[in-house]
């Protein structure tokens, strides 16, 4: 594949639509306070091409990302679109692992937030203390820390630990979410981040915590599985994403450029 300029006139409508959604996700991550200067990354599969995905140019803040600035790469890390920037090698390791392993995953989001990393560093991880935690625990796996993710051999263990979950807590590192769309991956991150923030806030009070009985935990987790599915009343991302885009358009619509 040859490199091509990232303009809507020179690519399919489907690819441009993915670029706009992905750029929106970067802006929303920054807007919600989840960004980490140039660190962390979000990727999205290029529609119609199982061997290519989009990721951020390493050198732009998330608040600067636009649809046209996103970098198109293949599963070997070759840059396929014109850009003045490189890509983050750790981002390539993590995201190529996910996209190569499962063609149904359209988007992956990785963050280093205070709450997410704090929970990822606790031995017991995300605790079943709140309704918010129970909404995501059933969809959560854990991945042991193996150092900065520049070793391509780590891709195998990332895929194994993610399994069929939508959330992966990266021990001592942060959070990772995936979805069949950018919208789905983003809303899973919102829910995981929210649950982690609540846990840290509760722990900081040093008050005696009120546990949720195990039978209630089981029932609640199963109810969430149904509610979060396409058959439920809140299929992940489908209702939230249009509202989030409206919010972003009010703040700064330049992500669409």
Topology:
Blueprint: H1 13-31, E1 41-45, E2 52-55, E3 71-74, H2 89-101, E4 107-111, H3 114-120, H4 131-137, E5 140-143, H5 154-162, E6 167-170, E7 174-179, H6 182-205, H7 214-228, H8 240-251
Helix pairs in contact: 2-5, 3-6, 4-6, 4-7
Which features does this protein show?
257 residues, alpha+beta, seven-stranded mixed β-sheet, disordered N terminus
What does this structure look like?
The protein is an alpha+beta fold and 257 residues long. The protein has a single domain (8-251), classed as L-fuculose-1-phosphate Aldolase (3-Layer(aba) Sandwich), CATH 3.40.225.10. The protein has eight helices and seven strands, in the order αβββαβααβαββααα. It has helices at 13-31, 89-101, 114-120, 131-137, 154-162, 182-205, 214-228, 240-251; strands at 41-45, 52-55, 71-74, 107-111, 140-143, 167-170, 174-179. It has a seven-stranded mixed sheet, with helices on both faces. β5 (140-143), α5 (154-162) and β6 form a beta-alpha-beta unit. α3 crosses α6 (182-205), α4 packs across α6 and α4 (131-137) crosses α7. The chain is globular and about 55 Å long. The two termini are 24 Å apart.
